[in-house]
Amino acid sequence: MSPLLDDLRRATPTVWLNPNLTSWRSAQADLEYGRIDIDDAEALLLRHAPWIAEHFEGTDHGIIESPFIQRGSMWVKLDSHLPISGSIKARGGIYTVLKLADDLGGPLGDQAFYSRYRITVASTGNLGLSIGIMSAAIGFRVEVHMSREAKQWKKDMLREKGCVVVEHEGDFNDAVAIARQTGKEPDTFFVDDENSADLFMGYAVAGRRLKAQLERSGVEVTPESPLHVYLPCGVGGGPGGVLFGLKTEFEDNVHGYFVEPTHAPSMVLGLATGRYDDIAVADIGLDGITVADGLAVGRTSGFVGKRMGRSVTACVTTDDATMLRDAERFFHSSGYYLEPSAAAGFTAYEQFAHLPGTHVVWATGGSMVPEQERLSSAE
Ligand SMILES: Cc1ncc(COP(=O)(O)O)c(C=O)c1O
């Protein structure tokens, strides 16, 4: 048995340096997507910025972006504090819903028009929140299928917004499989977290946004001083899309590290075995259970693994106690609350902090977590 599989089976925190890492020029040549697709996504977001500014608080004139802060030798990208839905999933989810509304062509907010259509999605929680909040504002009917990990407050919030919440006993991949069936029903659009190019492009816009923030902060990215970006990974769409956007801007001067829970290391399992979504963590005896609800994914996205698998520098696994500890430490030192999934990046930073360059921990969610929930998870 390989040492990696041995560590994964035993749920021991581990680091996998990707032997298939290749130059961006070579990886990009095999992709059907490129800069032009990110241009389109950004243009659509810009076009709808006035409407967003009118209907939601906290945006920068309708631009949905998060703070970028420095903490000693580390930088933190606070997608935990993205406006509207408070997680990295806001990037892909909100873009996907706006694009669908654009394609259908009604005025945003026209309930009589949009309530003819239903959007369905499966989620561990945060994608559901982003899709649910934006769809409800536009006027769509929404049905969110939630896996067993999904937190009660996320279900409550969605119901308050008028979304239908369907609860599942199984894990995220089971919920996706059932929700996918709804896509065959009339006037229904299923947002596929495992395979959606639209979600992917929404996440990818983050690359150029971070580039502008780095420039404003006076940070130069060069071959001698590259960017190291630590991304919590669930099904892979969020981190994969962000890395696609960053590679498009910085090519080989950016290194992406994906971080997963020791009990649900589905991306590293798929990449290291070359089996992508053809293998699940249950196949190596893991239960997929973790306090990091957003990362509790047993089978990775084949869509992302096959496209970004040669562009991820390394994968790292971390355990629940470390994520909880790092979230708490960050809260005490910065005042920003992160949910456990969102703190996974700190583990990887510790592994690679000695390398020259600029280190960015992507903190992916937390600002929507209610006060009561924060207290109970701190106990
Ligand atoms: C807080 C948080 N971080 C990271 C992720 C990972 O995103 P993905 O599942 O697209 O890999 C999620 C997914 O829901 C999340 O909720």
Automatic annotation (TrEMBL):
Catalytic activity: D-serine = pyruvate + NH4(+)
Enzyme class: lyase
InterPro entries in the cross-refs: D_Ser_am_lyase (IPR011780), Ser/Thr_Dehydratase (IPR050147), Ser/Thr_deHydtase_PyrdxlP-BS (IPR000634), TrpB-like_PALP (IPR001926), TrpB-like_PALP_sf (IPR036052)
Keyword DNA-binding: no
Cofactor(s) for this UniProt protein: pyridoxal 5'-phosphate
N6-(pyridoxal phosphate)lysine PTM sites in chain numbering: 89
Keyword Ribosomal protein tagged: no
Entry keywords, A to Z: Lyase, Pyridoxal phosphate
GO MF assignments: D-serine ammonia-lyase activity
HAMAP family attached to this UniProt entry: D_Ser_dehydrat (MF_01030)
PANTHER family with a match to the protein in the record: D-SERINE DEHYDRATASE, THREONINE DEHYDRATASE, MITOCHONDRIAL-RELATED
Protein's UniProt name: Probable D-serine dehydratase
Source organism (scientific name): Corynebacterium breve
Gene behind this protein: dsdA
